[in-house]
Input
Amino acid sequence: QQQVKQSPQSLIVQKGGISIINCAYENTAFDYFPWYQQFPGKGPALLIAIRPDVSEKKEGRFTISFNKSAKQFSLHIMDSQPGDSATYFCAASENTGKLIFGQGTTLQVKP
Amino acid sequence: DGGITQSPKYLFRKEGQNVTLSCEQNLNHDAMYWYRQDPGQGLRLIYYSQIVNDFQKGDIAEGYSVSREKKESFPLTVTSAQKNPTAFYLCASRDSTARKEQFFGPGTRLTVL
Output
């Protein structure tokens, strides 16, 4: 019940295309859903986050879509660029602040 | 320049040795976390601390120990009891009063020789 399942494991997108990464959870007590971006050899950096009282949040080219009834949320990267090539992690937490991470998605954007 | 620092960046350990990884933050965050990252497995929580002089086990605490004597510091010791310690270790901190996000340090890559 504490798991967060992330798919796909890897993704290849052409420059200018849309990258979509999906996550699903079981624990209805989760109330914070961040996405992190990680480059090789670096620590993860927060990209965008959402709380379950909204269905969508957009920041620049990055959008989170949230479906509370289905217990799913996704990251959309519009106009994907080679510089977006990285590993993306979804996560979920409840009020303790502990984050449960998905397995990660390695994104490659081809020029 | 605020942030989280981890040292060393690379660490090599012989089997049977204990090693300590450093994590320092100057963000005045009260909560601090240690994660382990293995290829294809995401990040797994080792230990966390919400206040000074208190800490809790995460999902994979066996073979690790921590201390939290100062708000700014949360060192992690990888003991000889940890069977497979080669991994990338990440420290994070959070302002729990404001429910803000976790900020991560740059990581320490530990290799057992």
The radius of gyration of chain A is 13 Å.
